[in-house]
UniProtKB/TrEMBL annotation:
It holds the Pfam family PAS_3. Residues 127-188 form the ANTAR domain. It comes from the Bacteria. This is Transcription antitermination regulator. It comes from Mycolicibacter terrae. The lineage of its organism: Bacteria, Bacillati, Actinomycetota, Actinomycetes, Mycobacteriales. Residues 33-78 form the PAS domain. One of its GO terms (molecular function) is RNA binding. InterPro entries: ANTAR, PAS, PAS-like_dom_sf, PAS_fold_3, WH-like_DNA-bd_sf.
């Protein structure tokens, strides 16, 4: 990176969960970051144009090779780019992130790249404060069992804590205007159709998480 430290964005207020979107076109390896992803990396919105080189430069040294391998496989097999890894922002602060992605298609229906979300887990709510959220969230107790199952599935798939899993479910609920209980129920039901092969299950789980809100309302609760 050739940006001077003074050009880095000021530290943003700490939030429980920071989510930003991205797109990566395979041809030309062209990236597009939302303002939230730019800020995660320590830049002002519009300050830089992300490139593969810049993306890899920000990855934690211990995770950089794994991310490079994932990108190489995505480019050669036209698969989505998903991972759990650490990155360093422009100020050198370490972030723990999940990249949840799905295939991106062109107008002819051919795979053109991958698009999805960066989920920054660094500032997620602690377990004590999560308990308070559980008590006040409308309708939570009614669907507690299925929500706990969905949390467990996310914890297993992404190797995250219960609090982080809950915040991801809450994010998708708010983002898609779908009741939390309904979203969790659909996620658990649809998971039974996923193949048991670990190498493909992760990619298909990402697809399910990003599209389950569009499935038929099987339990009749609506949105």
């Amino acid at each position: 990176m050739n940006d001077e430290p003074d050009d880095a964005a000021p530290a943003a207020p700490r939030r429980y969960l920071t989510v930003g979107s991205f797109r990566f076109w395979f041809v030309g390896q062209r990236w597009e970051w939302s303002d939230e992803v730019a800020e995660m990396h320590g830049y002002r919105p519009g300050q830089i144009t992300p490139t593969t080189e810049l993306v890899l430069t920000h990855k934690h040294p211990d995770d950089r090779r794994d991310v490079q391998d994932l990108l190489d496989r995505a480019l050669h097999s036209a698969e989505s780019f998903s991972s759990r890894h650490r990155f360093l922002d422009a100020a050198g602060e370490e972030h723990d992130a999940i990249v949840v992605a799905d295939r991106m298609y062109d107008e002819r229906g051919a795979v053109a790249g991958t698009e999805g979300y960066y989920i920054d887990l660094t500032d997620t709510v602690d377990e004590t404060r999560q308990g308070l959220l559980d008590e006040v969230l409308p309708g939570l107790l009614e669907g507690r069992a299925v929500i706990e199952q969905a949390k467990g599935a996310l914890m297993y798939a992404y190797r995250i804590s219960a609090g982080q899993a809950f915040r991801i479910l809450q994010w998708r609920s708010q983002e898609t205007n779908t009741k939390l209980r309904t979203l969790a129920t659909r996620l658990i039901e649809e998971m039974h159709d996923l193949p048991p092969v670990p190498a493909t299950a992760r990619s298909q789980f990402d697809h399910l998480l990003l599209t389950v809100h569009r499935r038929d309302d099987k339990d009749g609760t609506g949105t």
